Amino acid sequence: MNNKNTVPSVVKDIGFTLLAEGKTIKVKADGYSMYPAIKPGSIIYIEPLDESTSLTPGDIIAWKRESGLVVHRLIRIASDERATLYITRGDSVVNEDQPVTSDQIAGRVFRIENPGLKPVIVSINQLKVINYRINRLRVWLILELKRIRRLLNNVFNPNLSKSIK
Predict the structure, then answer these.
(1) Dihedral through CA 147, CA 132, CA 72, CA 53, nearest 10?
(2) How many CB atoms lie under 10 A from the CB of residue 120?
(3) Are 132 and 93 in contact (CB under 8 A)?
(4) In terms of DSSP H, where are the helices of 89-156?
(5) What is the pLDDT of residue 165?
(6) 70 lies in a domain?
(7) Domain of 52: which CATH number?
(8) pLDDT tens-digit profile of 24-57?
(9) Looking at 7-155, which runs of residues are DSSP E strands?
């Protein structure tokens, strides 16, 4: 039973369980979907929700999917006769996520520690200043610069890049 997928699955389950038991968790961010509010490598603190918690657009929430947690900003709440739906979107993502229901929401982000910076208490008012296209362009530029840097390292230091791999 040396499956590479076992450890992430166990860690994901432990995180879900801790939040369900009312415990706060912290996780390391991976990816650029919430850039610049959350940078890759940031530590995100997620608090569980209870009956008294009221979510509002602008909150950054964590919701469950089979592969783990998604941490995106709540942009809209919609209701129909069956349920309340929560619509989220990453700050640098082109489209909204599929709506989630309250049972899929694991918690709310209340603190972010970006690498090398002071901890940030998450502000609900951040929703008003998000420019998705600018953020997406920033992410594209960052990723392209990283790609160019790798190519230049391979050209000017071919022996170094072979030893790193």
Answers:
(1) 160
(2) 14
(3) yes
(4) 132-156
(5) 47
(6) yes
(7) 2.10.109.10
(8) 888 889 889 998 888 898 889 999 988 778 899 9
(9) 25-28, 43-47, 60-65, 68-79, 84-89, 100-101, 105-113, 120-121
